[in-house]
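Wait, mind explaining this?

_____
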Amino acid sequence: MRDYLVLLLISGSVIGLDQWTKSLVRASLELGEMWSPWPWLTPYARIVHWYNTGSAFGMFQGLGMVFTVLAFVIAGAIIFYYPRVPREEWGLRLALGLQLGGAMGNLIDRLTIGHVTDFVSVGTFPVFNVADSSITVGVGVLLLSMYLQERAAQKQSAGQVKQEDPADAAVQGDASIEQ
C-alpha cells in the first residue's frame, strides 16, 4: 500500500491542478474566447478556451472513444506495474505518476463533458492543458530516467571489466611467481 501512496500523491496532484484550471477556464471564458494579461504577450502566449475530441495537442480529432478506452488501459497498466518498480528508481516512479495523472485528468473530461478542455496557447503550437503537459513531461522524465540508468549500468559494467582485465591478471600472476 505504501508503494501506491506516492503514485496517488503525484497523480492526484496533477488531476487536482488539471481539473481546477479547466473549471476556471470553462467558468471564465466562452468557447473560443481568449485572455491575455498583457497585449504584448498575446502573440506568444495566451489562454484560449478550446475543446478537443482527439488526443493531446489536438491530434486525431474525433477519436474520443478510442482515447477513453486507451486511458483506462494505460491507467490499469500503470497501477499494475507501479509496485514492481524498485523504490530506488524514483525517475520511473515520477514518470508513471505524471502519466497516470494526465491520462486520468483528460479521462474525467471525456466522461463528464464529452470532450477535453484545452486552454494553454503558446505561439502557433496546438492548444493544450495541464494533463497534456503532465503526460509530455512524464514521457521526458521516463526517457531521461532510462538514459541515466543505462549510463550507470554501462559505467558499472566498464568498472567490472577493468577489474577483471586478463592483462592485469597476467601481470599480477608474474609478480607472484617472482616472489
